[in-house]
Design a protein that fits this description.
about 100 residues, alpha+beta, Nonspecific Lipid-transfer Protein, Chain A, five-stranded mixed sheet, 4 helices, 5 strands, SCP2_sterol-bd_dom_sf, SCP-2 sterol transfer family protein, SCP2_sterol-bd_dom
């Protein structure tokens, strides 16, 4: 597992834990993927209810609050597959500070 994926797991576990239903996958282009569930974040690449794909730079900007996830989606920087309502919930978790 790469240091980049480890960093996402460390950052996203407290944000996702107890706040997400089902399974979401973040695909960080060229680095791998992170699975989000009620238990937190972990490395993985299985089927999920919703899949968000973007570059490391885009995800880091979303996590820091420098990039609005809806605008990233509308501009084509963030790709979404699956349930849109779940994608919105995942984006709220990504932008949560804490």
């Amino acid at each position: 597992m790469s240091a980049i994926i480890d960093d996402y797991i460390t950052t996203l576990t407290p944000r996702a834990k107890g706040h997400i239903r089902g399974l979401a996958k973040l695909v960080i282009t060229g680095h791998g993927s992170v699975m989000l569930s009620e238990a937190g974040a972990r490395a993985g690449d299985e089927a999920a209810d919703v899949v968000l794909s973007a570059s490391d730079e885009v995800f880091r900007n979303i996590l820091s609050g420098a990039q609005n996830p809806v605008m990233a989606y509308m501009s084509g920087k963030l790709k979404v597959e699956g349930n849109v309502q779940r994608a919105l919930k995942v984006s709220a978790i990504l932008t949560a500070q804490g």
